[in-house]
Every structure is written in structure tokens, then in C-alpha cells.
């Protein structure tokens, strides 16, 4: 986790929690909304929360029976406005700057009281560029000005992206090369260290935020190489910076985060 940023704590809600899920994207900064959303749905249901999912067609399967699945896309929210009916909290994942205002209007009209944004570590990268080039910052700022309580979650890479085929480019062909040749081929493999978080841990961070009431595009490759070079050149400094962030993932979810070894053991069949 690079950042867990929130504006306020508000009372716990018992209304519908709306999760938005899009198809895997390779554009820079896009986390795998499907694998994270499914873990989050199970965690919410386990505590008695009502869960609705707005999912693009290829993401509508594999949800627990108790989940209300609405076919639609958060990138075109006006086409499935009914998904927001009764939504008291929203896990906003996969939104697009050009239509996020429509989604926020629907959330506000539904009297939603908290929006948790699955953002990216991209805003730090975007801050050095003109506003016209902003993607994640544009979404975050729209949410901040929506009048709804908000939390932005800016994760680094998610382990499940290796299988789902979402950003980052790092790891995108590991299952193929390990299965075929038993090797990993990566840029800066000897000195680049990319930070990953397990998708269930990321879902647990989102869960905590909700309870606080509340080929590859050039850009994706450029951002990945930039991050690998930075971590390679400043590994000790950035590792310590990551450990020093508060609240940490451990603080938020109340247990040690899962390791990459844990994730590999759980998904070993994908590499056989």
C-alpha cells in the first residue's frame, strides 16, 4: 500500500453497499477490480451487510448467492442508474474521469454517505504533469468535491493482477513463462523490486474504510519501468518509507499482511 487517505470518520451504515467492477484493463494504474471485489463482497456478507454489484458482463459470474448483481458499467453509470437505489456506501472501482460526475450525482441522489475510491499510486506520478493529463487525480478530486464523505485507497500492484492480466506489466506473463520454461523474465530483474499487495488484504483495507463510514499501452509500460528504476535506485529509502506509512496495512486490517509466498501457494495451479 502506498497510501490510505481519508477525510473523516462517520458512523457505521447498515444500508446497501454498492461495489463496481469492470473488465480487466491494462492501462497504467488499473487494479483488478474483480478479484478484489469478490473478496470484499464475502467480507461484507460475513458481517451481515447487504451487497450489490454493478459488473460489466464478463464479470457477473462467481459472486456469492446473496449478492445482488446488476449488469452494467461504472464507466456508463446513467445506463444502470437503478444500481444506486438504496446504496448507502459505494466502493468506486474502475470509474472514468469523463463520467465519474454522473456516478457521483446518482450516489448523492441515493443519499449515499460514503464513497471509497479504488485509486492507484498513479496520482503521485500525475502530480508532475498538467491537469489535462490527470486520470486518477481527476477522479479523486471529483469525489472530494461531491459533498459525500470519502476515502481514497492508493494501492501499489496487486498480486492477483498476475493472473487477471491487469496493470502492472510486471508479472503479466509469469504464469506462461514459469509453466513453459520454469523461469521469470523481467526488466531490471536483478535490481528492481516492485511492491505488491495480496488482493484479500486490499479488500480488507477497503472493508475497514467502508466501516469507517464511513498488448500493453505505452503509458503502462512507462510507469512500470519508472517505478522499477526508482525502487531499484532507492530501494532502502523507499522500503523504509513504505514501512513508516501510517496507518499501515497491518494497522487497518488488524493482522499481518499476506506475503507473496502465501499468494503463490494459493495460486500455484496457475503456474503449472
Provide a brief overview of the structure.
The protein has eleven helices and nine strands. It is α/β, with parallel strands linked by helices and 272 residues long.
Strand-helix topology:
Blueprint: E1 3-6, E2 16-21, H1 33-46, E3 50-55, E4 68-71, E5 87-92, H2 100-109, E6 114-118, H3 122-126, H4 136-144, E7 149-154, E8 157-158, H5 161-164, H6 174-181, E9 196-197, H7 199-211, H8 218-233, H9 235-244, H10 249-253, H11 260-266
Parallel strand pairs: 2-3, 2-5, 3-4, 5-6, 6-7, 8-9
Antiparallel strand pairs: 1-7
Helix pairs in contact: 1-7, 8-9
Write up what this structure looks like.
The protein is of the alpha/beta class and 272 residues long. Helices cover 37% and strands 15% of the residues. The chain contains eleven helices and nine strands. It has helices at 33-46, 100-109, 122-126, 136-144, 161-164, 174-181, 199-211, 218-233, 235-244, 249-253, 260-266, and strands spanning 3-6, 16-21, 50-55, 68-71, 87-92, 114-118, 149-154, 157-158, 196-197. The strands form two sheets. Strands 1-7-6-5-2-3-4 form a seven-stranded mixed sheet, sandwiched between helices. A two-stranded parallel ribbon has the order 8-9. Helix 8 (218-233) crosses helix 9 (235-244). It is globular. The two termini are 29 Å apart. Residues 9-13 have low confidence and may be disordered.
